[in-house]
Amino acid sequence: MKRTFALFIALTAFSAFGLAADPYVVVLGVGQDAGVPQMGCESPFCKEAWKDPSKREMVSSIAIVDPDTGERWIFDATPDLPEQFQLLKEITGDRSNALDGIFLTHAHMGHYTGLMYLGFESMNAKEVPVFAMPRMKRYLETNGPWSQLVSFKNISIKELVKDKPSKLNGRISVTPFLVPHRDEYSETVGFRITSNGFNVLFIPDIDKWERWDRKLEDEVRKNDLLFVDATFFKDGEIPRPMSEVLHPFVEETMALLKDLPASERSKIHFIHFNHSNPLVQRSKEAIGEVESSGFRIARTGMTIPLENRGN
Predict the structure, then answer these.
(1) Number of neighbouring beta carbons within 10 Å of residue 92
(2) What's the predicted TM-score (pTM) here?
(3) Is residue 310 part of a domain?
(4) How many domains does the chain have?
(5) Strands ordered across the beta sheet of 172-178
(6) pLDDT tens track for 35-46
(7) Residue 233 lies in a domain
């Protein structure tokens, strides 16, 4: 957490001298929907992780913070939302319960169920803006217990439109875009976050890159930072047909982007690791393979300023 502390000191200094500080992204978790380790898992790694909290990981989520205005937005409401919100408070130095919005990617358990903690039985929040696509919005409004959050005015749902930017303040906007995934209850989207000419892509879940109507290589070139689905490292990782749970393997993503310059490959930050993934198990061999290939691994507590490096 040294970098986090250094960033907080730097932002405090900017504020003290009346200078504008860049917005920044915070990684709040890196695990797949069910966390790390998963319930019922008795693998050697899981047994170690149940005994050693340092080996556990919260579910994948990021936040965007504007230190000038004090605003902060969370992307995906995970089952770990209480602890993640507390981490965000510590990193920003703002211990109030102010939360300027939550953006939802889709209706799978790790990406929206944390909304329950905004409810009457817990925080009893007041009209926290929840940004959601049309099907996701209808799902929340018409199914309990989520509909109670709406009727009790714990949340206020803001409907998103694909490929249409939502302006959050004078220098931050967020644009949803559709990605192919299992859409039983809602659409699935990724988000482009834009600030100061700096573009961040957040794609925690997607089937396979070739099923997308965009080319990942082009998106890497057009953006400055990408958090991408790394649920599984390679085929055969779990004892079931992996065609039942489509995700791009880390090996596939690295092979797809291997011919890009190092400066482009370094934009990729892998996130959303299943508990079986050797990267989240901290395998030196797997981590070395990724990092020596020029890619990066998202880690909880990581902070990255959104600054236009071309200026």
Answers:
(1) 22
(2) 0.91
(3) no
(4) 1
(5) 166-167, 172-178, 189-195, 198-203, 225-229, 268-271, 296-297
(6) 999 999 999 999
(7) yes
